[in-house]
Amino acid sequence: MPPACLLEYTRAGLAELLAGLGESKAFRATQLMEWVWKHRATDFSQMTNLPPALRETLAANCCLRPLQVVEVSPSSNGSATRKFLSRMQDGHLVESVVIPAAVGRDGGHSGRMTLCVSSQVGCAFGCKFCASGLLGFTRNLTAAEILGQILAAEEVAGERIDNLVFMGMGEPLANIENLLRALEVIMDPQALGIGARHITVSTSGNVPGLQRLAAFGKPLRLAVSLHGACDAVREQIMPVNKKWPLSLLLPALREWNRTGFHKITLEYILIKDVNDSMEQAKLLSKVAADLNAKVNLIPYNTVDGLPWVRPAESHCRAFRDALAAARIPVTLRYEKGHDINAACGQLRLRRTARNEHTP
Fold it and tell me: Which residue, among 43, 66, 65, 40, has the nearest Cα to 56 in the 3D structure?
């Protein structure tokens, strides 16, 4: 069994873990929580107010970091956007992207330091425009590996991460148990203390996972990768639509709206001659109006080995204007970091081509 990673434990969980290791003093859990999150300890020897014997026991049975950053790709266009690649303890690689303040992944200008977090090694959903699925699905990330990306990002950025978007590698709602466990720690004031309204979970349309997330009962922000306003178009690029077509997805989104949480964001990657027609703009306007949703348009970010093409900028603006004319809140966002392979999965794909991803 791999060692228990302390990142994924709440204070109550640490108390239970310590009891199992023979430590009966309840206040030790509070001390340990402070070392893990307040002091960001990376070694048990740093925990000087814990007895030496307890530190030795923890070092023998637990770990503090489940991953190691192995590559950082800064943007060459002068922005502070950085993608970094992390190696898990089993040798597999995942990507995360640090996005500077005022460039939120939901298209807004939050003034916060944002991290795009991965939830899986690879992806099983196989969206045709995405690099993450080209290598297939390997496994879910643990809650600790999800949380470890946040601490690694703070070290890379030199700043506190205070806005999270689960839009990295993988489908977050296909890893719902570990996602929810990580979210508990993320929102815990004694841990990361990031409020639910500063957390966005993206899904490609996993209806059961969406229902579980709604039952979680926290005012998280929701982004839905739509990318096609009718089944015929969406199925060309998103195989998930065959399992959960719009006839199932849209009612689930209406139910989400009844929770009274934030306005849903519909993510829509514009791909030339695939989903960028004015007819699709008209249908997308109807879907967005029905859901009282906002739309985030993203011109396609080129991926080596895939045939898709980014539409002309003038066409992207015309598509945006068609939605705006229908009174749909819409943004047109060109990817920051296009020069650093910032689309999900590209850095991992490149390193894998060099046979550097396996243990």
Answer: 43
